[in-house]
Amino acid sequence: DKLETSDFDVFELQRETNNNELVVVTNFFMKKHDLFSKLKINPETFYNFSKAIQDGYRPDHTTTKSTEQTSARPPTTFAQEQSKGNLLFDNVDFFSLVIGGAVHDYEHFGFGNDFLIKTAHPWAIKYNDTAVLENHHVGAALELATRQNLNIFE
CB burial class (10 A; 0-12, 13-18, 19+) of residue 66? Predict the structure, then answer.
């Protein structure tokens, strides 16, 4: 439960989980807030999806940043307000925060949008030079979610 406090140390979690911090955090929030049953998501499928997302991060662009995003203020605020009986977000909103944080740099390979556009990278062409990386991170994660044993939307 330290995950939902200001004392949360993502680097400690990274060490304790043998570099599986993103899988641990996403699955923690899903289980803690009963989103598996509320949203009818198979826990094993979600685990597989979160592991595949984690595996899509390069060693030099670690999942630690995404874990920080996933465990950042919105989920913490959600948990604190929910415990007081106030519901700021519905379950789909909260699920979206968890997934958004997890995939926000999925398959990032170290170059920025400007570089991709100026070098006519295939992603820049595909996304018409508009928010190239952002579109790719989301699009690639959604494509991943269509694969067998990874489809969290079934």
Answer: buried
pTM equals 0.84
Tens-place pLDDT, residues 71-130: 655 566 666 666 666 666 788 988 998 899 899 899 998 899 999 999 999 999 999 999
Rounded Cα distance between 56 and 137, Å, is 10
What lies within 8 Å, CB to CB, of 1 at 6+ separation is none
Helices (H), 17-150: 21-32, 35-38, 43-55, 63-70, 73-83, 91-103, 113-118, 122-126, 132-144
Integer angstrom CA distances of residue 142 from 106, 146, 150: 11, 7, 10
Tokens of 9: 């140390």
- 8-state DSSP, 91: H
- Cα(97)–Cα(151) distance, rounded to whole angstroms? 18
| CA-wise closest residue to 75 among 96, 59, 56 | 96
